[in-house]
Design brief:
This protein is of the alpha+beta class and about 200 residues long. It is built from 6 helices and 7 strands, in the order αααββαββαββαβ. The strands form 2 sheets. A 5-stranded antiparallel beta sheet has the order 4-3-7-6-5. The chain has a two-stranded antiparallel sheet with strand order 1-2.
Length: about 200
Amino acid sequence: MSKVHTTQELIQILANERQACLQGKRLNLALKASGNIIIDKYLRTEGWQKFTAYQDFKAAVHRYQRENSVSGIVWRQVTLKGKILSYPEVDGQLIALPSDLEILKTAKASILVFWREVTVGMDLYLSFNNGKDHQLIMPADVDRITRRTEWASLWKSENSNFLEMILQLGWGQPQEASYRRGWPESGSEYIHAVNPGNRPIC
C-alpha cells in the first residue's frame, strides 16, 4: 500500500507547484487566447496558461484529499493582550473535509470567547463591498452575525502604534467563503476591531 501524504506535505507540494507555474515551468497549453479583444489585450495567454495549470493541479490535490481523507486543517496560534489561543483553520490552498468542518464548528465558541476578551473597548467595523468599505457596528450586531454562521477564524495586524484584529465568521467551505466565490452555499463576514478613533486598514 502506498504512503498517503500528510496535510503538511500537500501544502509543500502545492507551494512547489505554484512556484513552477509562476516560473513558466508548467503551462496549460490547451488554453488559447479568449477571442475577446479587450481581455486578450490585457491578459497574455501565457499568464492564463500558468494560472490554469496551477488550478488544475490544485483540483487534483483536492481530489486526493477526498479520496485519502487528508485533512485540510492547520493549527494557528494568536497572542494578544497576554492571552494565547490555538485554533484550527483550513489552509488556503486545501479544502475542508466534512470532518474538518466539524472541527471548525467546535472551535467557534473558543475563538469567540478569545475575540470578546481581547477586543473590549475597541471600535468594531463590518466590512462590505468586498472589503473596500467599513461600517461601525456594536457588539450586539456581532452577536447576531455569529448566530447565523458556522465557524470562525482570526487574523491580527499589529505594529507599535496600530492594532487591528479581524474576526471572520463563515459558513460552508472555507476556501469558497472568501471573496464570495461559493455564494450563497459558502460565504463569510469580516468584523474588524481597532483602537478607538482608528479605522480598519485591512
